[in-house]
Amino acid sequence: MTAQPAAQPRTRPVAERQARPPRFAFSWSRVLLAVLCGLVLLFLIAPVVIVIPMSFSAAKYLSFPPPGFSLQWYENFFNRSDWTSAMIQSIRVAFTVMILATVLGIMASLALVRGNFPGKDLINAVIVSPLIVPTIIVAIAIYGIYARLHLVQTFFGLVLAHTVLALPYVIVNVTATLRGFDIRLEQAAQNLGANPLQTFRYVTLPLIAPGIFAGAVFAFIASFDELIVALFIAGAQGRTLPMRMFEGLRLEIDPTIASVSSMLITFSVLVLLSAELVRRRGRTEA
Amino acid sequence: MAVTARRPAVGAQIAVDPRMRKLYLRRQAALFGLLLPALLLLLVLFVYPILRLLVTSVYDQGIISLEHYRRIVEVDVYLRVMRTTFTIALQVTAICLVLGYPLAYFLSTLRARTARLLLILVLIPFWTSILVRTYAWMVLLQRQGVVNRWLLELGLIDEPLRMMYNRIGVLVGMVHVLLPFMVLPAFAVMRGIDRDLIRAAQNLGATPLQAFLRIFFPLSLPGVAAGSLLVFILALGFFITPALMGGRTEIMIAQLMEDQIRTQLNFPFAAALGTVLLAVTLVIFVIYNRLLGLDKIFGGDVS
Questions:
Q1: Where are the transmembrane segments (chain A) (predicted)?
Q2: Cβ proximity of A218 and A169 under 8 Å
Q3: CA distance B73 to chain A (A)
Q4: Which residue in chain A is spatially nearest to B231 when comparing CA positions?
């Protein structure tokens, strides 16, 4: 029983007190700080924003501001099969990875939070380590064994490798929601006659849904944006979008990338917004 | 991870009744079964390949030898790659610190709602593909790029500056990618600092600067240290930005590894380079774990 109150997020009261910080008196140092921070934020956001008008440029070369409006780079993208097939391949891989990582991740998270077995700390460490070990190491290590397993240049091989990288994101997010969750709700369901599967389906799953959603989104993006592992094991046939973009940037800058980039930026903003909405809904329900 | 420490007490209690104990063990076995698929995947495609990489690195033509490591420290070209990698990682960390600390501090002093809004400006690039952002910087920094054009039109320079295919391009691109990794943990820690402590210090006669330096700054250090170590670790293994925006003569360790495998076909040497990179990363990571704990890294808290 003693574990229950401690499992609640302990930072809540502090965060609430911080919700209304002290009003600062006007001072020049604060104005200076605000200006400096404005510049840093500009540095962060400007390159992302500038790509969008450039993608509608009527010029043959990259120029800013664009001399006129045109959809030529979008046309170029959708008319060229090397671009569209790379995009489709990336979506297929990332979607499969998302499903696989989310299912395996939910199962592992339940075990890691509820279970009590020897070596749990070690297992925890192994599970998060793909986030820390440089991707180039993971890439060459997997490349090293894939040659013998005949998994190089296969869809399945790339999916499995990306799942290794995506899994920690799901587990970190799902275990976080599982820990902040009152286990007595599950006990109550079981006392009322639910079997473990029903308990999971009707009690646990809805309550941890925000964590699962966040984890799944992370997993999708981890695979969709991944270049280095794909570079080693995907091969020309299964070329992903990041690989095609990398080729398009390596020798000379292909302006078609402006249109791909704009679509990807729009996509990430939409993802960010939906994650924020889910987070808010999760908070009001809790 | 803190939760695990409390569990044995429950287990010990249950151990008293043999029937309860049997139920408990069966439940634990079922839970372990849930873990198995993920664990198996990681063992086969992560732990084993990396262990094999380490073993490969100490073999040379079938016999155990440190030949590959000897080459790393004795051949000038490779030594220079190591030096470049560490220098760039340090420079990137320093720049992220200088830019990120004031930003995190400023955001932490704002109302929660305003801070969240401004944080979106940090999160949008954070969620955007590195390739997209590298592309944007290439457009901005190239010889006929946006920045050069504007500087020329303003009359600030007479001829275009070289800002790409050299150290400047690599630093700008890498700082842009890694700055959120500094700002987010620093902000999370700073937001948790009790502002009443600052008020108390000021009531006791400290000037605002003294209160900042002696109360706020030391309390913010865990977040800053975590951010710095994270940025440093990630910078060491960087590939995309230096490959696209760096010079031909100044390459980083990840580029050398890629080149060794894809063009030189020298897997053992790449494995040795990987081992060095891994060792450094793990040492820093252990320090990181002591400072802030594993689960704080990519936790959903700040997103």
A1: 31-56, 91-113, 125-146, 152-172, 207-236, 256-278
A2: yes
A3: 20
A4: A132
